[in-house]
Automatic annotation (TrEMBL):
Protein name: Sigma-70 family RNA polymerase sigma factor
Molecular function terms from GO: DNA binding; sigma factor activity
Keyword Chloroplast: no
Cross-referenced InterPro entries: RNA_pol_sigma-70-like, RNA_pol_sigma-70_dom, RNA_pol_sigma70_r2, RNA_pol_sigma70_r4_t2, RNA_pol_sigma_r2, RNA_pol_sigma_r3/r4-like, WH-like_DNA-bd_sf
SUPFAM superfamilies named in the record: Sigma2 domain of RNA polymerase sigma factors, Sigma3 and sigma4 domains of RNA polymerase sigma factors
Organism in which the protein naturally occurs: Lichenibacterium ramalinae
Keywords carried by this UniProt record: Sigma factor, Transcription, Transcription regulation
Pfam families reported in the protein's UniProt record: Sigma70_r2, Sigma70_r4_2
Domain RNA polymerase sigma factor 70 region 4 type: 124-176
Family according to the record: Belongs to the sigma-70 factor family. ECF subfamily.
NCBIfam families named among the record's database cross-references: sigma70-ECF
One biological process term in Gene Ontology: DNA-templated transcription initiation
Residue ranges of domain RNA polymerase sigma-70 region in the record: 27-93
Tree of life domain: Bacteria
């Protein structure tokens, strides 16, 4: 373990000096770990793949900022990866619900967009389970988890406190989970 740390410290020093071979070696020995960090936050592999490329570009640019006296190279790189993924997550937040047009009906819009995929058994099961939810709660779930609306946006839209919205979402997801197991 100590030898591995020394090897990574040496690779970081060489990367800071713009050694491309060292950068390739650093990527080879750390990419799986950093990909795990990124995909753990972003979930979608396509987003994680793109973020990981940017993480290594940042490592290349900032390798000189790494200080082995302050921590391990892998911890420093994991922090770069985590911060990049969290930035993406913040940017991915959808427009606030307040910008949606009045009378916006999430359920009918979703049904039209998803009709093309009707052959997908899992999707049909999910849609059937969503139909079992109260209309207001179904819309809240779709706005939160499909559109990316925040709990605060939903609170304003429904005129309910944020804790109530959290409870709605938690209970609705539990209902969906139970329904999908049947």
């Amino acid at each position: 373990m100590l030898e591995q740390r020394r090897d990574l410290v040496d690779l970081m020093r060489r990367v800071a000096a713009r050694d491309r071979d060292a950068f390739e070696d650093l990527y080879r020995v750390t990419s799986a770990k950093l990909y795990g960090v990124v995909v753990g936050i972003l979930v979608r592999r396509s987003l994680a793949d793109e973020a990981l490329q940017d993480v290594y570009a940042r490592i290349w640019e900032r390798a000189g900022d790494f200080d082995p006296a302050k921590g391990s190279p892998i911890a420093w790189m994991a922090a770069v990866a985590r911060n990049r993924a969290l930035d993406d997550l913040r940017r991915a937040k959808a427009a606030p619900v307040s910008t949606l047009p009045e009378g916006f009906d999430v359920a009918s819009e979703e049904a039209n967009a998803l009709d093309a995929m009707v052959g997908n058994e899992r999707l049909r099961a999910l849609m059937a389970c969503l139909d079992r939810l109260d209309a207001e709660k179904r819309e809240a779930v779709l706005l939160a988890y499909y559109r990316g609306c925040s709990r605060e946006d939903l609170s304003r839209r429904y005129g309910r406190p944020v804790p109530t919205i959290k409870t709605w979402l938690h209970r609705s997801l539990l209902q969906l989970r139970l329904c999908l197991r049947q």
